[in-house]
Design brief:
CATH architecture: Roll
CATH class: Mainly Beta
Shape: globular
Protein name: Pyridoxamine 5'-phosphate oxidase
GO molecular function: coenzyme F420 binding; oxidoreductase activity, acting on the CH-CH group of donors
GO cellular component, one term: cytosol
Number of strands: 8
Radius of gyration: 16 Å
Organism: Streptomyces monashensis
Number of domains: 1
CATH topology: Pnp Oxidase, Chain A
Largest sheet: 6 strands, antiparallel, barrel
Strand content: 35-45%
Number of helices: 3
Helix content: 10-25%
Structural class: alpha+beta
Keywords: Oxidoreductase
Amino acid sequence: MNTTGNVRRRAAERRRDTFERLVTEREVWVSTSHPDHGPHQVPLWFLWDGRAVWMCTGATSVTARNVRKEPRVRLALPDTFDVVLLQGEAECFPDQDVPGDAAEAFAAKFGWDPRGEEGSFLYIRMAPKTVRAWRGEPELRGRVIMRDGSWLEQ
């Protein structure tokens, strides 16, 4: 791993940079697992509402089936140098039961409202319990910036 020029950020900087990415990024890799069929990973559009990540997928997709059986999920923003990993439990909302503010914000961000589509969709909300963030080897130590749902001060 090339770490030339890397400067270790303080926890407050990591949190700030993580929040910025959660607000501005569009895709997140979603890892789910089924008790009988094992792991599954897909990229989905996401919205950060300041407390939780909202995603949407077809109601019959593998991701939807998995989170109904096993709600523990891991999310990863798509950058191998500026790593952000989130872990928590998913809550599922059928498209007709999703809170209106979340659905409206999702539609505004992407210009697409699943509630108006043919077929059923499932909104998935995940409030992280653990967040890890690091840029290169100098930041591996101290990469946990949230534990048990609380941001750390480090």
